[in-house]
Amino acid sequence: MCLDEPVAAVEERARSMEDYECVDIDYSRAVPLEPFIHQVGGHSSMMRFDEHTVCKPMISREHHFYLSLPKNLRKFSPEYRGVIQVSFQEDDEGFIHLIAHPCETNHSGGHSESDSSPAGSGEEDNDNASASSVHRTKRRRRRKDSGGIDTQEITHRVRLLRTGSIEVQSKGTGPFLVDLVENKEEAESLKGLGHNPWSLRCHKRQLAEMRKKSPNSKLHKFILLENVTSQFVYPCILDLKMGTRQHGDDATEEKRNRQMEKCASTTSASIGVRVCGMQVYKSETGHFLCRNKYYGRKLTEDGFKHTLQQFLNNGQAIQHLVAPKIIAQLEELKDVLEKHQTYRFYSSSLLIIYEGNSCWGDNGDVCTNHCATNVAVKMIDFAHSTFKGFRGDRTAHYGPDKGYIFGLDNLLRVFHEILDGHGDNMPDEQDM
Q1: Taking Cα atoms as reference points, which of 55, 212, 190, 232 lies closest to residue 134?
Q2: Do the strands 156-160 and 375-380 form a parallel or antiparallel pair, or are they unpaired?
Q3: What residues are paired with 226 via a beta bridge?
Q4: Whole-number Å distance between alpha carbons of 411 and 268
Q5: What angle do CA 282, 283, 286 make, to 5 degrees?
Q6: DSSP-based three-state secondary structure for 326
Q7: How far apart are CA 22 and CA 8, in angstroms?
Q8: Strand, helix or coil for residue 34
Q9: In this predicted model, which residue has the larger pLDDT, 409 or 129?
Q10: 360: which DSSP letter?
Q11: Adjacent-strand bridge partners of 53
């Protein structure tokens, strides 16, 4: 049975999104943004808005796709929470601040009241509207009456030097192990700053682009999304690029060829999935092991299997209580995607998250009464996704997204092999 909405309904909702406009910006209530410390992959910098909400630069196509998501796919994506305006400010010392300003809009969000709460939100029905969500989350933040930045909330400051390098001043250290093997000098400078190194790399790029494109006073649109790691203390995160094709229908010939070459040379072509980032909490050291997309591009199929095994290993044992929950959610996602006959999720990623803060008994057995075994599986990055009737796209696809489902099948196979005890011996890191 096909669960795709009628084309006319999709087109009407898409047209209603075109007139989005921020009509009333509240400059008196400034929310300082910081890099999201658990960003393990991606291109755009994810910023922390509050404990439960992150934001990223708005791409119109992705924004509309979030608003158009069918109900049964919202469970597998971060909750959309609205749009904010972000200003770029550079102080006298050269440190850069990104400041969020909530605003009233002439568009209340992509879900009608009959949609109830977005899947996974756990909110009451009266929390549906994006504008309400912005103001609700913002009230949790402490701010100065004058509207200035409350520096007590800022845990670090970032300065871009004229050489193009990034300087970070931090109030504390964190449990992240640097894995930027391509740039040893940069890796050393970012060590122990309390962020996944990929997060700061993306933040550096984002700030450089914003400073180059606009003066300090210009506002930039960001979308607000659920922080899917907020329920975890030490989130172990796997970022997977899904599918055998990564270029969108609107890609230039140059980009299409580049993406096809990248897929052909990685596990994207052979098994429909490749590693784009990873962090795993190692309980014996109290640190996260971090991997980035360049590591993932070099993996063979065997290397991919070993990496998933490493992802499930907290330094003491494979998390056998976690793996079945991951498998169950992946199977449910596959069942949902098979029912959507025109959707394509080109270049999107899949996040798999579990709690790394396990406790263990003296005999090495997991303490099931105290161990958090929550698991989250979330689809993200929809800038190149499409479906029939979406924003007037000329190319229409029919049947389910076979490339994505092919990747899910292989992902499920590997997790089953790990759970069934295939290859229990962990590989040496130099072999990976």
Answers
A1: 55
A2: unpaired
A3: 53
A4: 12
A5: 80
A6: helix
A7: 27
A8: strand
A9: 409
A10: B
A11: 50, 226
* Residue recorded with tokens 């994207």: 268
287-291 and 176-177 beta bridge pairing: parallel
Which tokens is 75 given?
């469970």
Identity at 244, one-letter amino acid code: T
| Residue with more model confidence, 205 or 275 | 275
> Tokens 């299997």 label which residue?
305
Which tokens hold the place of 311? Answer: 């992802």
Tell me how far CA of residue 368 lies from CA of 301, 320, 398, 400, in angstroms: 33, 11, 45, 39
Q: How many CB atoms lie within 10 A of CB 397?
A: 17
User: Which run of H or of E encompasses 72?
Assistant: helix 71-74
Phi-psi region of 338 (alpha: psi -120 to 50; beta: other; left: phi over 0): alpha
144 CB-side CA count, 13 A:
10
- 231-244 pLDDT, tens digit per residue, is 999 999 999 999 99
User: How many Cα atoms occupy the beta-carbon half-sphere of 28 within 13 Å?
Assistant: 4
**Cα angle 72, 77, 83; round to 5:** 115
**Taking the CB of residue 318, how many other CB atoms lie within 10 A of it?**
18
Average the pLDDT over each of 320-324, 404-408, 421-425, 428-432 and give the range with the smallest value: 428-432
pTM assigned to the model? 0.79
- What the block records as the tokens of 200 is 């700061």
| C-beta separation of 158 from 96 below 8 A | yes
Q: Which residues pair with 48 in a beta bridge?
A: 34, 54
- 315 Rama sector, left if φ>0, alpha if ψ -120 to 50, beta otherwise: left
Tokens in use for 3?
């669960």
Quote the pLDDT of residue 359.
Answer: 57
Those residues whose C-beta lies under 8 Å from the C-beta of residue 254, and which sit 6 or more positions away, are none
Tokens for 223? Answer: 């979308």
Tokens of 157: 């400051």
